[in-house]
Amino acid sequence: MRVIEGKSEINVLLVEDDLDYRALVLALLPKPPVHVYPAETPQVAYELFERHRPDLVLMDIGLAYPGGIVATDEIRKRARALKHEVVIIMSTGSSRMEDVKRALHFGADDYMVKPISRGVLYEKIHAHFPAVPVPRRS
To answer: Residue 81, CB half-sphere, CA atoms under 13 Å: how many?
Structure first.
């Protein structure tokens, strides 16, 4: 698992084409220490990734063309070219292990099954960015 130590604030690229779900995730993310750049399409995500170099990408696996897995692969390639370390967490409406394995194979570090809860989201952030002060479940 990719863990980035020492960051108490993070920039997040939220790639989600469902406006209602994007609004939900935006509402769940604690601001600060999380600063969010929302993207509706992979093309916008690529531009925002290069401009802001986020620490975390929350990627919808079911994005419209070219899809979340292809977009994840592309962002991972761009991160390597920029020598930028980034955590990518996929979100999926399916808990099928086939989808999860494909996402991990193409560069995702982790995944969440929709609908996500505040507790699961915070646990994922804390697992990959232990210095970010987010509430944890007891």
So the answer is: 9
How far from the centroid of its chain's Cα atoms is residue 92's Cα? 11
Provide the percentage of residues in the chain whose pLDDT is more than 90: 74
Q: What is the pTM of this model?
A: 0.93
What residue has token string 């592309």? Answer: 74
Indicate the domain borders of the chain. 12-120
**Under 8 Å between Cβ of 11 and 54:** yes
The CATH code belonging to domain 12-120 is: 3.40.50.2300
Angle between the N-to-C axes of helices 97-105 and 68-82, in degrees from 0 to 180, rounded to the nearest 10 = 20
Compute the distance between CA of residue 138 and CA of residue 106 in angstroms, rounded to an integer: 33
